[in-house]
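Build the 3D complex.
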Amino acid sequence: MVRPPHHHAAIWTFKRMNMLSPQRQRLVVIGNGMAGMRTVAELLARTPHRYDITVFGAEPHPNYDRIALSSVLAGEKTLDEIVINSRAWYDENNIRLITSDAAVSIDRLARTVTSASGLVAPYDKLLLATGSKPLVPPLPGLTLPGVCTFRDIADVNQMITASETQKRAVVIGGGLLGLEAAWGLKRRGMSVAVVHLMPTLMERQLDVAAGTLLQRDLDERGIAFFTNGQTEEITGTERATGVKLSDGREVPADIVVVAIGIRPNVDLGRACGLEVNRGIVVGDDMATADPSIYAVGECIEHRGQVFGLVLPIWEQAKVCAARLAGDEEACYVTPPLSTKLKITGIDVFSAGALSAAAEEDEELIYQDRKRGTYRKLVLRDNRIVGTVLYGEVKDGPWYFQQMRDGADIEAIRDRLILGEAAASLTGTVDPTAKVKALADSAEICGCNGVCKGTITAAINDLKLTTLDGVRAHTKASASCGSCTPLVEGLLLLTTGVDAKAAGPKPMCKCTSHGHAFVRKAIVAEGMKTIPEVMHRLGWLRPDGCHSCRPALNYYLLCAWPGEYVDDAQSRFVNERNHANIQKDGTYSVIPRMWGGQTNPRELRAIADVADKFGIPEMKVTGGQRIDLLGVKREDLPAVWADLNAAGMVSGHAYGKALRTVKTCVGSTWCRFGTQDSTSMGVALEKMTWGSWHPHKVKLAVSGCPRNCAEATIKDFGVIAVDSGWELHIGGNGGIHLRGTDLLCKVETPDEVLEYCGAFLQLYREEAYYLDRTAPYVERVGLDYVKARVVEDAENRRALHARFLHAQTFAQHDPWAAQNENATFKTLVPAE
Amino acid sequence: MDGNILSNAWVEVARLGDIPRLGSRVVATATGDVALFRTGDDSVFALDDHCPHKGGPLSQGIVHGHNVTCPLHNWVIDLSTGEAQAPDIGCVRRTPVRLEGDRILLALRA
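Done.
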């Protein structure tokens, strides 16, 4: 078959050829970019001989991967490597490629396209794939040498050349494009600053949390950021010397890259009278208002939407090719979009909604600061409608698939956020999967140094079937308990016994009842003593054990304030002796310092006590108190008497009780302080001291959001803001670090006290013994706490009143008058 | 491990009322502190105040049945034998003890 041998062939060649094969139509493509050539490739795959194809390209290059330009700029790829279709491909497919000669006009009546050089190409079908132009704001100085955009190979070459001789670059735009430009220039050795209009980077693809992580990581890689930065002008007279921001900041630069975005290139479409809004308007068939003219890619507008990402454009190419091939059915629907950032070592994935937009939307969030990973899923009606991944993105395509499929995630909701591997396990999670994968030498219990092999051997050799059995024989999970799920998994793996399946966990071996049941029964049936509870609830052992007795003592104390007589013999040693037992049998003594405040008189008294009793070590605690370590049991009452004499009382550092209220100095001294956090802390401590709880309770008050008192890892944390106080709950340091949840914001100190008392009372009344507020809040849910404490004002006041009532019986210094307590004294037999 | 009773002298160290039920007191002896326990059924036991595990003061533990739980690491010691409850292995030295009325007598080593 006769074919035009080369793109220089003249127009008559087509005419003659058409006479030879009259059924062949002429397709002219304006734009030699990714959208146009993808359409041509799709078309050739469907119908290789239907059209004689002519392509006009403004750039001198064959079709290349524009997305990979950032990799070229970063020096990770060469220009040759990003070519998609070589000239040979055009030749092989008999496509007439005209480069460096832009199409400049369309005659829709004559159905011809005319190029800058005067070449005229007639068409039966015309495809507009003119792409986009860089979005450039009308800034003074834009035309200075040293200013460029980031759109094509010429731009990249200009930047590469500049990077070889110049030092400083400013990139205007902290979106995808701008950050890739910035990173490329950084890789080429320039010092780079990014000016971004918005407070966080890539705000269209990332939520604030992920955008903040991204900025932190790029900051560490040496890129400087000027966020909230509105560029006012590019400075310089001969060439660009920097940018000036509207707030007065100036950033010096040798080159300025404007990369704030793109806008559809609609010039040709508009000139020939097609309907144009933001882009050239097309229907679902990818045809413009003129049925013989199609358009695809970044130049179009479809149902009000314009495009900058490759995936929908591939879809458009497919539909357009089908239509050109005669398929009357093919319709374009914009698929959900996903984004990835091409900066080596920084992984970002984003698709769909960035955050909950409607009331029924929910967000699942997983964050691991240490590993620098962040995941957020936005759910609506049990379906994923948005995904933001940072740091670890391997699950991005899978989430994206679920999102596109509209898959119902109800069944895998509990592990969805952990990704495909966790969620793909059929039915419920296989609790043995994790332990199965471990080697025998892998340590399971860090507290007691027990490895997997030891536990498995014990289970097999001793025929163990219960968690308690494993604990007793191996000590695994017998201390802090954080490895309990692993041990339970090992039991299940080794014996098939599911330690968790037996309903609520019994309180201890003395009973089959769980904590919730016992707490309820005590109140409902009006049980008033430990023996009564044990008798009526069928305890297996007459005086229980070291595990259930302290719990019952607390439950009764909480249920019947003022009425229940505390049972010292059911208190753990620390609470019985009002001091913390140490490994050598001595005790530590910590006097209360209200809100962490002290004075010379107290400090002298403490120093005197240390001298007088030969106390070997003193230390400042994390809760802003002074710890006297190594006090002998017999000395405790006398030590306390001396501290009492100086006006100090027990700090309850030993109890399942209100421990400390940590404060910063607040507005009294601090130049950033917004409220008097110290006085607030003292007031809270005066209200709450002496209160007994299911576990220790720590409070903190910070005078401003800098949060120097670390209020967000406390059971009840208060952060002063200009307009009042933020109240946070359910945080703790400890084995499982947990940041607080924001309960609400209040305006006055009185409200802080009321909400605090109400929350603590709710916790006191409902938590299981030895559960801190963190597991309690996780068990009942933040919404529940809000409903009880925030939304129901009457209930809040009632809780607070019950707390204050209990306090009237609890606020007695346990250190006072202990000199008479014989149990501290050692008996010395008479000779 | 009761020691040689023949060379011991019975010494009164306390009255029953000096020890709370499910409680204990410490007695200083020539061979170290002895913990004196009173259980729920008013039985009295005397053991070295020293857990076989890490030396915790048993006198400060919680008493339940004829057992005490060490306050340091929750080993449970049988007061009548001095043996640690299985699977822990260890034994505490006992001191012979006798109740005469409400007088508590220990057989202290000379």
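Chain B touches chain A through 38 residues (CB under 8 Å).
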